[in-house]
UniProtKB/TrEMBL annotation:
Protein name, UniProt field: ABC transporter ATP-binding protein
InterPro entries for this protein: AAA+_ATPase (IPR003593), ABC_transporter-like_ATP-bd (IPR003439), ABC_transporter-like_CS (IPR017871), ABC_transpr_LolD-like (IPR015854), MacB-like_ATP-bd (IPR017911), P-loop_NTPase (IPR027417)
One GO CC term on file: membrane protein complex
Membrane-spanning parts: none
Top-level taxon in the UniProt lineage: Bacteria
Domain ABC transporter residues, every copy: 7-246
Keywords: ATP-binding, Nucleotide-binding, Transport
Pfam families given in the database record: ABC_tran (PF00005)
GO MF term list: ATP binding; ATP hydrolysis activity; transmembrane transporter activity
Length: 248
């Protein structure tokens, strides 16, 4: 039996047409398959097309050409409202710049996706309490996003993305603004949900985050230049300091 990929992108291309300027090819023929339950980290220098690729996979931007299949269903041909339904039901998205609803509390920001997805108010509240607890945000539940630090807003955005227990978590640099303690909380939560079967595709610059992934995909100038499983070897000192190595 072959499993249906969670994501299959075929020759995906995005060319931005900006005003009178030259067209900018941001994603240039990406082929990417992600299995259910797999954790893939996307790395690459600034401007290499990481955000564009992850936005395309979540339907937040439209492709120029190529195909996107999610759970075996063609997705790139969906309308905006078709994508909105798909995201509500199946995808949690952590934006690079958080996109929290500014006039709602932290608690409401996290509960909203679960409620929109049809969870009971009690279930949505329990899920919110669990996620905020895991991310060290319990005492910020009544705050407005504007009262939070960048790192706190980023963790709220992750909690919101996971509120609905989405089949697919897409995240654009979810630890980009975090100090090391908060990064640790985020890493712990990501590994826990991954162990529970969560499919994750995330963009990161952080080797500790990439070290949790099953695979690292490297982008350069809009193309995949490396796509390899991670092999973990024990470091000399035992459990601490695992050596992470990329395999072609
Ligand atoms: N809305 C846009 N309009 C025009 N060009 C864009 C737009 N978004 C991104 N780009 C360009 O596409 C390329 C890839 O950008 P991006 O996907 O944001 O890269 P990364 O996330 O790896 O830093 C860059 O050259 C960037 O300037
Ligand atoms: Mg980016």
């Amino acid at each position: 039996m072959t499993t249906t990929p969670a994501i299959r992108a075929v020759n995906l291309v995005k060319i931005y047409q900006s005003g009178r300027g030259l067209p900018v090819p941001a994603v240039r023929g990406v082929d990417l398959t992600v299995d259910p339950g797999e954790f893939v980290a996307i790395m690459g220098p600034s401007g290499s097309g990481k955000s564009t690729l992850i936005h395309l996979l979540g339907g937040l931007d439209t492709r120029t050409s190529g195909e996107i299949w999610l759970d075996g269903k063609r997705a790139d041909t969906l309308s905006e409202s078709g994508w909105a339904v798909l995201r509500r039901e199946k995808i949690g998205f952590v934006f690079q710049f958080f996109n929290l609803v500014t006039n709602m509390t932290v608690a409401d920001n996290v509960e909203l996706p679960a409620l929109l997805g049809g969870a009971s108010p009690r279930h949505a509240r329990e899920r919110r309490e669990y996620l905020l607890g895991e991310l060290g945000l319990t005492d910020r539940a009544a705050a407005a996003p504007a009262q939070l630090s960048g790192g706190e807003q980023q963790r709220v955005a992750l909690a919101r993305a996971l509120a609905n227990q989405p089949r697919l978590l897409l995240a654009d640099e979810p630890t980009g603004n975090l100090d090391s303690r908060n990064t640790r909380d985020v890493l712990k939560l990501l590994s826990r949900v991954h162990r529970q079967g969560q499919t994750i595709v995330l963009v990161t610059h952080d080797a500790r985050v990439a070290g949790l992934a099953d695979r690292v995909v490297s982008l350069l100038d809009g193309e995949i230049v490396d796509d390899g499983a991670i092999v973990r070897r024990r470091g000399p000192g035992g459990t601490a300091g695992d050596v992470v190595e990329l395999r072609g």
